[in-house]
Structure formats: C-alpha cells, structure tokens
C-alpha cells in the first residue's frame, strides 16, 4: 500500500484474502497479523478490520491458539444466515427470547463484535426487538423459519 492509506484499505485487503481463499492459494491457517501487516504495509487495526469483515461473512474464523483460519466448509454460510437460521433450529416463535450475545459467541465461535453487528442488522430489519428486562425477542419469523 502507499504511505498514506486511503479509507477502505481494509476492503482491498479483505478482497485480496477472499480471492486467495477462492483460488485455493490460502488454506488452513492464515499468516500472523504481524506478517499480514508487513506484506500489505498497513497498521494492525486495518488488518483486523479486514479479518473481522471476513469473519462476519463466514469466510474466516478465529481459532484460539492458531490465529485466523479459513472457515470449515460447514461454516461457510455467513454469520447473519446462521444466526437467522437459529430461530428455526431452536423452534422460536414470535415473542420468544433470542439467545444472549455470550451464548451466540460460544455457539458460533466468533467475537462479540461480529455478533453485535449481526444483531444490530437483525433489529434494523425488524427480525428482532429489544425488550427492557427481557433482552432480545423474536419480532417476526424469517422467510425460511417455521416452514416445513
């Protein structure tokens, strides 16, 4: 990258990583954040933003003791899709309490930041609602939830 990185540099890096994964050049564990910083000539925060974006898409996952790795094939659906599917998997009905952030982080093995982004989107689209003292509740069923 150039000395003064423009806004959106993390998008360029995430696109390059995504292409490397799609082309089969990147498999398994990714290089360390420090190695990615050197190879792209950017700060750690830029690398982390790119990695978090790919995590939210379901392309990468953070693995304790390993670092970042390409998501297993069964986990390739985006986090948003997996969290929306949770409504059907748990047989939740309108008004039922949606799992907590901590439970979602543990279930999907992702960061709280990634979970919060998806939850905010689910609330913004009207799928979930926040009820004081109750947490998040299902407001409407997604198109695939509740159908046999």
CATH topology of the largest domain: Arc Repressor Mutant, subunit A
**Total domain units:** 2
How far apart are the termini? 50 Å
Shape: elongated
For the largest sheet, list the strands in their spatial order.
1-2
Number of strands: 4
Largest sheet: 2 strands, antiparallel
In terms of DSSP E residues, the strand content is 5-15%
- Structural class, judged by helices and strands? mainly alpha
Description of the molecule:
The chain is mostly helical and 148 residues long. The chain folds into two domains: 9-74, Winged helix-like DNA-binding domain superfamily/Winged helix DNA-binding domain (Arc Repressor Mutant, subunit A); 77-138, Arc Repressor Mutant, subunit A. It contains six helices and four strands, in the order H-H-H-E-E-H-H-H-E-E. It has helices at residues 9-22, 33-40, 44-57, 79-89, 101-108, 112-124, and strands at 60-63, 67-70, 128-131, 135-138. A two-stranded antiparallel sheet has the order 1-2. The longest helix has 14 residues, at 9-22. The protein is elongated. The chain starts with 8 loop residues before the first helix and ends in a 10-residue tail after the last strand. The relative contact order is 0.12.
């Amino acid at each position: 990258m150039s000395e003064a990185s423009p806004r959106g540099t993390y998008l360029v890096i995430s696109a390059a990583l995504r292409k490397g994964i799609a082309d089969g050049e990147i498999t398994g564990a990714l290089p360390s954040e420090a190695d990615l910083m050197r190879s792209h000539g950017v700060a750690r925060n830029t690398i982390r933003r790119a990695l978090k974006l790919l995590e939210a898409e379901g392309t990468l996952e953070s693995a304790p003791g390993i670092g970042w790795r390409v998501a297993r094939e069964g986990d390739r659906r985006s986090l948003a899709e997996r969290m929306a599917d949770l409504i059907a998997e748990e047989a939740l009905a309108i008004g039922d309490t949606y799992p907590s952030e901590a439970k979602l982080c543990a279930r999907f093995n992702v960061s709280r930041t990634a979970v919060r982004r998806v939850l905010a989107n689910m609330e913004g689209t009207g799928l979930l609602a926040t009820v004081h003292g109750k947490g998040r509740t299902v407001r409407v069923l997604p198109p695939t939830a509740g159908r046999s």
